[in-house]
Amino acid sequence: MAALQSILGLMHPEVSISVSSQSGEQIQANGKDSIRDIYMAARMRAESLAVKFGLRAITLHDDSHATVSSEALVRASPGSRVDAIAVEMEWERQDGSWVMRSVKGSSNLRQ
Asked: Do 105 and 18 touch, CB atoms closer than 8 A?
């Protein structure tokens, strides 16, 4: 729960998330409350969840807007296969701090 709170602290209150995996699973969420609900539901179903991010590039568009490209390696349980998902995060500066505005991820975004 502490990890979730830490991640939510980096997000805009109206953050939007759209992620699809190679296995066809899709996650769509708008706002921090939706993300918290999805996390709690997944925690009840999954034995464990491991996610490792590999940073690819940060593009600073101006003083208040940036894009981060990353790859997430996701394993739903110790015996399951690893999904590699390309992740694009839109960040914006608000009150001197950078917050995530949107997150899009898909195995189809891989280059």
From this structure: yes
Answer whether 0.85 is exceeded by the pTM. Answer: no
- Do residues 12 and 29 lie in contact, with contact meaning Cβ atoms separated by under 8 Å? no
Tokens 């690893």 belong to residue? 82
The token duo for 33 is 């409350």
Question: What are the Cα distances from residue 25, in Å, to 19, 29, 33, 53?
Answer: 8, 13, 20, 19
**Rg, the chain, Cα only:** 14
Q: Are 87 and 104 in contact (CB under 8 A)?
A: yes
Name the residue with tokens 């759209």.
Answer: 18
Return the SS3 of 77: coil
Tens digits of per-residue pLDDT, 43-69?
777 777 777 888 889 999 999 999 999
CA distance 86 to 80: 19
